[in-house]
Design a protein that fits this description.
The chain has 486 residues and is α+β, with helices and mostly antiparallel strands. It is built from eleven helices and 20 strands. The protein has a nine-stranded mixed sheet. The radius of gyration is 22 Å and the shape is globular.
Length: 486
């Protein structure tokens, strides 16, 4: 880590020291519907999809936090989007700074559920024919910011003193999605009913973490729920859809209060998904007996775990809460592109570029390959060898929440949890502080060394920016900050 980064971290930790003894915590909440009233492009696939209606609302759940002396602040913005897109961040951050001058905008932390049926924010990502009636992504960003800023401001202004508790349960939601074969190669969503299949590449993390906040009268105000699984059970639909998180929210609000703010966190899981790979028939049979579709079944498991946790910890409330929020950047090594990877990508650039003359639907694939050739050219000039990556670490009592902007493979998360000094550690991928390193714009996969050696989508050069070595640096730097707070 650079000397300036070390000095900056020490300054942050010194400023946080007085908050480690515990004090009263105030929170404010707000939920806002961000579903547009016009068709939009949908994010998350290589091909263009335009929405044909709303299955359920795309929402933002907002949790504003501040300690008694006002020196420690954070606002959690949990959104039904595929990732914390830079176009939205660049528009939202200055607007929040203007609306709430006494708030440090570097503590605005953006969480995404990774639903594949939410709006696109980048005008250049997909090609849409001129005659298609569709809101531009940049128009959606303007629409979303106009709704988000007053909602964030309301949550900040309406903070009240709270008590908190937390707990751990388990929910079998995530399953490794990378099948490993006899030739030691992996395929994402590869067939498992063939003789060449040997095993799934890695294990899953079934931790279900919950943090609860009650006001002084005992009313439940908010829950942070962390599940190490992206919300993409229905990833190919052409409707707006919050995926399984919609049903989780409905279930919990039906039991705990219709106005409860639910901060959904997608835990570490770049190598997993909710899709079952080799037990699908048995899973589907049980869901049919329960009269539930697949998303409702996933939501049942999460909701029951949260409710069981609630029953166990609801009498362990405390109001004397150490609260510290730190946002910083870490310099991570980008994966070095080989000449062979460059030549393969250049072949794709040429062939897809030719194809685009008559078929614009390959626009996304062309851009995917072009990024690699551009990165290789920069690499040859000694540029773009590292990325300055924004992360957040927030201590709340005996728990800690740490973020990263990647689709981070599960073993990295396990390494952080295993060595964290917190009693319970919440890791949120596809999340980041908004006001730091705004030039960093990636939600790329970050695979382990072993996974990269197996290849396959999610562990090839087109899928990644930072390499496995950078992933371990992320682990060490995150732990360094966490453990200074305990």
């Amino acid at each position: 880590m650079k000397k300036t980064s070390i000095i900056g971290l020490l300054i942050l930790l010194f400023a946080a020291f007085t908050s480690l003894q515990g004090s009263e915590l105030k929170i404010g909440t707000k939920t806002v519907d961000l579903s547009p009233d016009r068709p939009v492009q949908l994010d998350g696939q290589m091909h263009t999809r335009v929405s044909k209606g709303i299955k359920n609302p795309i929402t933002a759940n907002i949790l504003a936090m501040e300690n008694e002396d006002g020196k420690q602040q954070a606002i959690f913005l949990a959104m039904d989007l595929i990732a914390p897109r830079i176009e939205l961040i660049r528009a939202l951050t200055p607007a929040v700074k203007k609306a709430i001058p006494d708030f440090d905008a570097s503590r605005l932390v953006f969480f995404s559920t990774h639903t594949h049926t939410a709006p696109v924010c980048d005008d250049t990502k997909y090609y849409v024919a001129p005659d298609v009636d569709c809101m531009l992504p940049s128009e959606y960003v303007v629409f979303a910011v106009k709704k988000l800023v007053p909602a964030i401001e309301e949550a900040w202004k309406n903070k009240t003193k709270v008590q908190y508790s937390y707990g751990l349960d388990f929910a079998a939601v995530a399953w490794c999605r990378r099948a490993l074969y006899q030739d030691n190669k992996a395929i994402m969503y590869g067939k498992t009913n063939v003789p060449e299949f040997r095993t799934m590449e890695a294990f899953e993390d079934h931790d279900l973490g919950s943090i609860f906040f009650w006001d002084e009268k005992g009313k439940l105000l908010a829950i942070i729920v962390n599940v190490s699984c992206p919300s993409q059970e229905q990833e190919g639909l052409s409707v707006l859809h919050a995926d399984f998180w919609h049903y989780v929210r409905e279930n919990l609000r039906a039991k705990l209060g219709k106005d409860v703010c639910i901060i959904a966190q997608c835990g570490t899981g770049g190598d997993v998904s909710p899709h079952t790979q080799y037990r699908r028939a048995a899973e589907n049979r049980m869901s049919q007996f329960r009269n539930l579709d697949r998303m409702e079944e996933i939501a049942r498991r999460i909701s029951e775990g949260v409710l069981e946790t609630y029953d166990v910890v609801k009498n362990d409330k405390t109001s004397n809460i150490p609260f510290v929020s730190i946002s910083r950047t870490v310099d991570l090594q980008n994966h070095r592109i080989t000449k062979g990877e460059y030549e393969s990508s250049m072949h794709d650039v040429r062939s897809l570029g030719e194809k685009m003359k008559t078929d614009r639907t390959v626009h996304r694939l062309y851009g995917w390959a072009k990024k690699i050739t551009d990165r290789y050219d920069a690499q040859q000039k000694g540029k773009e060898l590292t990325s300055r990556v924004p992360i957040s670490i927030v201590r709340i009592g005996d728990t800690v929440i740490c973020t990263n902007p990647f689709e981070l493979y599960t073993p990295f998360g396990i390494r952080i949890k295993a060595r964290s000094e917190a009693v319970q550690t919440f890791i949120a991928q596809l999340a980041r502080p908004c006001a730091l390193s705004e030039e960093y714009d990636s939600s790329a996969y970050l695979p382990t060394k072993e996974a990269y050696s197996h290849g396959g989508y999610g562990a090839i050069i087109k899928s990644i920016l930072v390499g496995p070595e950078g992933g371990q640096t992320l682990v060490e730097e995150t732990l360094k900050t966490i453990n200074e707070l305990f």
